[in-house]
Design a protein that fits this description.
Largest sheet: 4 strands, mixed
Order of helices and strands: EEHHEEHEEEEEHHE
Structural class: alpha+beta
Number of strands: 10
Helix content: 25-40%
Shape: elongated
Distance between the termini: 78 Å
Number of helices: 5
Strand content: 15-25%
Number of domains: 2
Strand order of the largest sheet: 5-8-9-10
C-alpha cells in the first residue's frame, strides 16, 4: 500500500498579494471556518473538508448564506436570571418593565401633587469603608433604592423597591433590607 499524499503547502514568501505566479489564490470561495476547523487547519495546514450537510445556497454554490457571528451570539443570548427585560424610556434605563410601569404611576402622582421630590436610584451607605488590622481595606456596602419620594399628606420619606416574588427572597436583598431598617430606620416599601 502506498502512503496517501497530503495537500501541498506553499511557503508564505511564494504567495504575494494573493497570487501564486500567474494564478490567483481564491480564498473567497471557501466557507468560513468554525473555531475547531481553524484550530485543525493551523495544526496541519490542511483545509477542512466540507459536508453535504453544510448550509449552501443551491442556486449559487459559491455563495454562503450563513448568519454572522454577531447574529449567532445574539440568538444564543442567555435570558436574565429572574426573566426581567431591561428597557429604556426617555433616556432613563430601567431593570424591568414592572419598574418602568411604577415610574409612570409615580410621575402621575407627582403631577397630581400627592408626592414630591421623586428621585431614581438613590444610594444609601450601609457600612463605611474601613481598614483591617492587616492593612487591607474592607469595601463599603450600600443599598440602591429604585425610587425615593416624600408623601405630601404625611411629610414622610418613602423608599420603594420594585420586586418580584423571587427577588424578595434573595438573601442579599433581605440582609440589606434589615441593615436599612437598623442603620437608617427606613422600612423599604416593596412593590
Amino acid at each position: 500500500m502506498t502512503k496517501r499524499a497530503t495537500s501541498l503547502r506553499y511557503p508564505e514568501s511564494a504567495i504575494k498579494d494573493g497570487r501564486m505566479g500567474t494564478a490567483t489564490v481564491r480564498e473567497s470561495i471557501r466557507q468560513p471556518m468554525t473555531a475547531a476547523q481553524l484550530a485543525i487547519f493551523k495544526l496541519n495546514g490542511n483545509p477542512p473538508q466540507t459536508s453535504a450537510l453544510d448550509d449552501i445556497d443551491l442556486d449559487d454554490p459559491f455563495e454562503v448564506n450563513r448568519p454572522s457571528l454577531a447574529d449567532q451570539m445574539a440568538a444564543r443570548k442567555k435570558p436574565a436570571k429572574y426573566r426581567n427585560e431591561r428597557c429604556e424610556h426617555e433616556g432613563i434605563k430601567f431593570d424591568s418593565r414592572k419598574e418602568l410601569a411604577r415610574w409612570h404611576v409615580l410621575v402621575q402622582m407627582q403631577a397630581r401633587g400627592e408626592i414630591t421630590g421623586l428621585r431614581l436610584q438613590v444610594r444609601f451607605v450601609l457600612t463605611e469603608r474601613k481598614k483591617r488590622d492587616d492593612g487591607t481595606w474592607e469595601r463599603a456596602s450600600s443599598y440602591v433604592a429604585d425610587f425615593v419620594y416624600v408623601v405630601v399628606a404625611t411629610g414622610k420619606q418613602v423608599v420603594e423597591d420594585v420586586k418580584s416574588e423571587a427577588t424578595r427572597k434573595n438573601r442579599t436583598y433581605i440582609q440589606k433590607r434589615k441593615q436599612m431598617l437598623d442603620k437608617h430606620d427606613i422600612t423599604i416599601k416593596e412593590i
